[in-house]
Amino acid sequence: MEFNDEELTTMVKENNEDAKDVLFEKYHYIIDIIISKYKKSIYALGLDISEIKQEAFVSFTDALIKYTEEKESSLPTFISLVVERKIQNCVRNADTIKNKVNSEAYSLEQEYDVFKNRPLSEILGDSKSDPLLQMENEENYEELIKHIEQALSPFEKDVYNLMINGFNYIDIAKILNKEPKQIDNTIQRLRNKIKEILL
Prior knowledge:
73% helix; globular
């Protein structure tokens, strides 16, 4: 007897290992796509790729448990977003640690010849940043995202969510099990809809 994704995710929530195995077999390729996207960063930061894969597997299971139809995205899209977020966090944390080690070599208050005898804190600080303006910009951005998402079909939302998370149309086609040409056409339609909203 075959089950659809929603039935299988419900079974996963009930700790059914067989259902989890079926979904993993069906969608494990997503992990490979995402890891290949971050491979250069992983190696550049000296991370252990097997540990990153392990983190990806854990987040894959988390996605299966957290997925509901109310998410308004397909299961492969949801898995992609959850797994990518986890890998991004691993890479970002490693980069932050590496940068912290590098930045601790400089004092923020010492004046450096390179910066025309100005302290590093002055160079790094952004005196033009207005918190009220920043809040207003964030509110406008959130409103714009709402308008965009309301204008899209469920399939277009899936493509849009993957696209804004940095996936190219070939990877999106693999994740959503569609032809690249169909994804390319959908992206063109998305761009036109977004242009209309912005005008």
